[in-house]
Write a structure and sequence with these properties.
Blueprint (H helix, E strand, L loop, with lengths): L2 H21 L3 H6 L1 E10 L16 E5 L2 H13 L10 E11 L7 E14 L4 E16 L2 E11 L14
Parallel strand pairs: 1-6
Antiparallel strand pairs: 1-2, 3-4, 4-5, 5-6
Length: 168
Amino acid sequence: MSEARALLAAGAEVLQREGICLDEQRWDEWLELFAPDCEYWVPTWTSDRALATDPQRELSHIYYADRQGLEDRIVRIRTGTSPASSPMPRTAHLVTAILALEPPAPGRLRLRSTWASHVFFPRSRTSFTFFGHASHELVLRDSRWVIQRKKVVLQNDFIPTMLDVYCI
């Protein structure tokens, strides 16, 4: 296997592992997939064809400037202080069409994937499917790949209920 293919496979494993951790609510393992100084962003659509370009100045569905924000969100989920997450929805994440956005640089991978997430809300007994594409920037830290940046484009942004990190 060529080095580029091996790097792509390693990156794809991180993306697949992320979905599995969310589905199985393995929050600590999910958080460990992110670098401490990561950025996690789900921009809004500003028109039918344009996305927000600046999370600091425009509305976002979700924005965390670092892993501390993600950790705080998980604390609220775990402690039940998030009414939207109690009872916890059940999810199934599908990640496909994982491609390198550019040739890998030493210690850095930029990937694009297509995703769908099926979410069942036990309280209302309803299911929704969210879908879109994502770009991940992975960096090699302590001999393992972690997510430095994740940008999720939600293609069906009419959100019939709440949206949270485990939905996308």
